[in-house]
Amino acid sequence: MLSPAAAQQKNLLLETYGQINEHLVTQMSIGNPVGEIFELGTDASNFQIKTFLKGRLFKQKGELALALEKVKMGTYGICEDCGKKISGERLEVLPATKYCASCQKKLEDG
Ligand SMILES: [Zn+2]
Question: What is the Cα–Cα distance from 25 to 91, expressed in whole angstroms?
């Protein structure tokens, strides 16, 4: 049995997972990437944008699947680098994150 906290984490992850799936279906069937076009600049063709978004969504799905595994193992919400607990606010925004804020920053800074 999962603890109530773990069950809640699992629900949040599953919800995010469902949203990503919906996005994927939308991207593939209608082919109307919304929002984040601007990140890519105006020259990017629709095909490039779709490929980019699809790739990212698949990646997010993989990360969420891993996070769900961790909930089962009881290691969800623990930073893979320093082993400390990741803050609740951070997990709310980035449910599939593997690192705490300071380790993430360290990694991004190189
Ligand atoms: Zn850390």
Answer: 25
Confirm if 82 and 106 have CB atoms less than 8 A apart. no
Provide the residue-wise pLDDT of the chain in tens; the chain has 110 residues.
778 988 988 998 999 989 888 887 776 665 444 444 445 455 557 777 778 888 888 898 999 999 999 999 999 999 999 999 999 999 988 889 999 999 999 999 97
How far apart are the CA of 28 and the centre of ligand 1, in A? Answer: 36
Place of tokens 């999962």: 2
User: How far away, in angstroms, is 78 Cα from ligand 1 center?
Assistant: 8
Alpha carbon distance 9, 97 (integer Å): 12
Please tell me what DSSP assigns to residue 28: H
| Ranges of each domain in the chain | 1-76, 77-110
